[in-house]
Amino acid sequence: MQASQEIQVLIIGGGIGGLMLAAICRQLNISCLVLERSKKVTPAGAGISLAPNALRVLEQIGLYDDIVRHGQSLDKILIHRNQTKWRTLDFTCVNSWFRYPVYSIERHYFHHLLYKAADGDNTVLLDSAVVDLIDDPADRHVKVELANGSYVKAQVVVGADGIRSITRRVLSRQAGIDGKNTIRFTGRVHMSGYTAPIPNLGPKDLGVGNWLFYDDSILTTWPCIDNRQWFIGVKAADIQGQEKIDRSVWAHTTPDTVNEAYGTRFHPFAESGQFKDIVDRSERVIASNVFEETDFPTMSKGRVALLGDAAHSMTSFFGQGACQAIEDATELANSLQSYFSTVGNKEQDHGSTSSRADTSNLVQVLSDYSARRGDRAKALVSFSRNYAKVHTGTLAYGMGPLVRKLIYAYLPEWGWMWALRWLYGYQPIVDSLSSVPGEKVVCA
After folding, report:
1. pTM to 2 decimals?
2. How far is CA 399 from CA 86, 258, 402, in A?
């Protein structure tokens, strides 16, 4: 689609959430355009976790089989405290409780799947950095200004442009409040990577993840296809200077960067016992400072909506960032489909004048989406923050190590599943598309 064509939905940001919304819009015959500031699509990040709350809609739009072929289900987790094994946690019960397992997949490949589902270059306009947007109620369209001085108009604008969202900053500025994102640095740094197949691993190791609790840091490895490993290390950041704190992704990260922090640490899959063996097989590594939400402004204002990290950034301790962006996109698509189908019917009955007048209802539609998603987003950010304290053993009053051991060493599998009902049991789908087998799952 060209920017000069009539656009119903203009999406700022070509990440997971933006492309998911575009892919759904394509199936709903809602015209959309994605503005992506990058000049080309390049590999980014390491792996990605796709849980049952996101997999149902991904199956509905036809991507689940590809995920199964190119991803790896998480079947069990080995849990160690330094070199002492606490237990093996059976995770196959996720499938029996929630109809889907948890899959790990290379982030770039999953992005490619969504890019293709969104119709790729026909939908995504690269090298399109947004600098401003104007939502004049007297105008039928929202107008978006690009860095090259051109403008794009659409009936709805969706900010899916990540933790440093320009969309969110513009909305905040126009509301007369500080235009900076309401995020804070957690004091932690994540180092992650995606490896080639680990040669000393065999069939028995497929689907086996690892949680390792060291004295001053933690390390997680998730199983990927062909015994590749996606690893995430978390430790307190040793950072000097506000400029370094403000950066999200570190420049020039190499395997040596990771090995400095974790190379000599124990890992049960390392041939020598030291994690360096796995890091040295990395095809891609990344280091980033960890930020989280401190405030929850509305997820919509006028005819502009937010989704994903642009609306509710959270720590990655339970791997829900992408899943929540997918949930947002699904719920927002349902709202947009309801609105546009109503407008289309009125236009057929009464002509375009009635359709233009009816656009005032769009503000309420997006406000309803904001209220519906905002509560769950707040719950997820709070859950992620508290889970991080349990995972790192940093609960108040010195209770962290004890609570962590009680949960990770002794809590039975059914206890884990019961605690995850509210998260994995909520599985939104696109209401007007063909459903997938089984009943729609929504657990409180």
Report:
1. 0.89
2. 18, 29, 6
